[in-house]
């Protein structure tokens, strides 16, 4: 036995026989287009720290399951990319993963510093209002789970679609009803309070839907921009939820709940006599509520529809990256040569779509105001 320890040959053999594995709970995200690059997010299960890797690094990381050594990974890498994985790159990647505590057996990093319960100022800030947001949404999810089954959701979805079509099919009645609502403060004020609570339930719906798909809800609180104050609900691993459907459902859950809450008003209106003076007011309430709910599905930041579009097209930070692309594009084709064709088409299409949506929103709002004022 040598007193100097293992020889270089022994160390090399041990390194080649090493079968690394990711630590349990590490989250690996799907491919996302970010500018000219395709990236994957990797997130630590304890610290919450996340970083990006490219497709080749993701290919290697996804094979670290404790059953493959360097020779196995190199062979699979060559079959996939028709390139040999350099051993120094393998060593560097393992070193990076080990340093970040992402490999099995790595020491636990220091837990993240807890966020203060309140941040900001009187004019702008937020305050955490629920001590255990994950547990609270979990209890709500267990309570509401029977209503999340198809036998309950399919009739609700059908009723919501009928409501939206019925309200938007008669814009003249909708605008007349909105005017009636605006001129009756004793009705308008309670309805405004209802809408505020509806928005709060909108946020809780995101959290409950996330819990349904295995998400982690980290915070529930109030966020204010004086004089407005709204509830917020933060889903920590939203981007890592399994599959596109889960992400779309979580993003759309808030607007869907806003529409479901309008169904009692629609039933009330349907039961009234057509000549009843309360019908126009209820029509206005339904119109305002439907517009408020559907506006969240418009694909502009920071609305839920913007997140849904990003998930659908597989792109991160769609609006900022579109702005960056357009800035570079004005410098000439060479400035965007690194962008693949898909990225160029996507960012150009989103720029045109966003501009059209803004113009439509301005024109629609202006038209509605003029019709209300000069009716």
Automatic annotation (TrEMBL):
The keyword Nucleus does not apply. Keywords: Membrane, Transmembrane, Transmembrane helix. The keyword Zinc does not apply. The chain crosses the membrane at residues 151-169, 181-201, 248-268, 280-298, 350-374. This is Peptidase M50.
